[in-house]
Amino acid sequence: MNRQDMLAQLIGQAAAAGTDVLTLRAIVEEASEVGAQRVLTRLGLADDGAQDDLDELRELLGAWRDAKASAWKAVVEWLVRGILALLLIGIAVRLGVPEMLR
Question: What pTM does this model have?
Fold first, then answer.
């Protein structure tokens, strides 16, 4: 018996005999399982290779985050170096180093 049949049987039991808390919990649990399986099927994640696909996607996402972080770090380093170089040139001009080199 599959989950959809189990859900139909529980709903029939609840309608025929009245509902108690246990029956209602069973209906909710079975409905949740059926809904979750339906969503996984629609997303293409109901097969045996789905876990491997998700693991690969997590690895890819982690690599993307690492690459993005290192790219930002490189940009900041180059900006700091540029600012320090401009500051050093400004100090050299202020001290008259170009005139001393002539």
Answer: 0.51
